[in-house]
């Protein structure tokens, strides 16, 4: 029985074609050569597996509205990550394509406005924050970033940006009222820090640490806007270091430090 099995197995194995002997390897099928249904299946599979790089490569020229929507969402997330990595050009490219693919996204893309500031696209950033104001009307940060872009946009000055500062009256976050007053020319750095320090001990409370992060971040970029770079460096170092947080605006402080060489 054992010998018979070995004999049959030997016949079976010898009948298997060996690549390079009886058959030539087949050329891999290119994605472009697949019919539309097959391409759709490959793209869906990439999406289901979470292979976003492959999905983005396969959908570069897609005319499928569903894929365009997924592509826009992925590009928005990658644009944010590229910004965190201080890849300003890559971030802006992703945000721009996301807005092009999904126009309804555009007014909500405040993140693109911040990237535009660091890319030196001040007029575009100013206009982005104006559109964001239409969907988020009570955010001091939107008014501040609009101010920052307005100062550096063609023909812009601190005085004209201050005159056209977007009015905000209902942002209850501490120390946003004091930050708005500072940019309006009616407040002070001391008032911003005093309000932030009242929240509590940053060593014991994330809320207190967060308030000080925002205070120093916006003091830093305020001083950048008015040309006081030494004070900008002092406050950004605290926002990116002592009061470091890893949410989006915490990352902005870290990126600011990196792109300004601090």
Q: Outline, from the CA principal axes?
A: elongated
Report the radius of gyration as a whole number of Å.
Answer: 27 Å
Assembly state of the chains shown: single chain
The helix-strand sequence is HHHHHHHHHHHHHH
Poorly predicted spans: 1-21
N-to-C span: 81 Å
Percentage of helical residues?
A: 55-70%
Share of residues in strands = under 5%
Overall number of domains:
3
How many DSSP helices? 14
Structural class of the helices, strands and pairings?
mainly alpha
What would the average pLDDT be, to the nearest integer?
A: 89
Give the number of DSSP strands. Answer: 0
Largest sheet: none
What does this protein look like?
The protein has 262 residues and is an all-alpha fold. The protein folds into 3 domains: 47-108, no CATH class; 123-169, no CATH class; 172-262, no CATH class. It is built from 14 helices and no strands. Helix 10 (176-184) packs antiparallel against helix 11 (189-197), helix 12 (206-225) packs antiparallel against helix 13 and helix 13 (229-242) crosses helix 14. The longest helix is centred in the N-terminal third of the chain and has 20 residues, at 65-84. The model is unreliable at 1-21 (pLDDT under 50).
């Amino acid at each position: 029985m054992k010998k018979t099995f070995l004999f049959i197995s030997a016949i079976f194995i010898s009948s298997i074609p060996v690549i390079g002997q009886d058959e030539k390897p087949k050329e891999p099928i290119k994605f472009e050569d697949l019919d539309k249904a097959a391409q759709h299946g490959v793209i869906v599979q990439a999406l289901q597996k979470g292979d976003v790089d492959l999905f983005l490569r396969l959908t570069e020229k897609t005319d499928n509205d569903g894929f365009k929507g997924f592509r826009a969402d992925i590009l928005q997330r990658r644009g944010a990550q590229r910004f965190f990595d201080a890849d300003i050009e890559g971030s802006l490219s992703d945000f721009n394509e996301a807005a092009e693919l999904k126009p309804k996204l555009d007014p909500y893309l405040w993140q693109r406005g911040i990237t535009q500031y660091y890319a030196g696209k001040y007029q575009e950033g100013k206009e982005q924050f104006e559109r964001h104001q239409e969907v988020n009307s009570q955010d001091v940060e939107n008014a501040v970033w609009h101010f920052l872009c307005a100062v550096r946009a063609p023909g812009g000055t601190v005085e004209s940006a201050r005159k056209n500062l977007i009015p905000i009256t209902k942002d209850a976050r501490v120390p946003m009222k004091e930050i708005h007053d500072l940019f309006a020319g009616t407040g002070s750095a001391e008032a911003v820090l005093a309000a932030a320090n009242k929240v509590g001990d940053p060593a014991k409370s994330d809320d207190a640490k967060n308030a000080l992060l925002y205070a120093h971040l916006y003091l830093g970029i305020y001083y950048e806007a008015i040309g006081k770079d030494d004070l900008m460096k002092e406050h950004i170092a605290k926002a990116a270091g002592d009061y470091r947080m890893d949410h989006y605006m915490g990352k902005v402080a870290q990126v600011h430090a990196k792109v300004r060489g601090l």
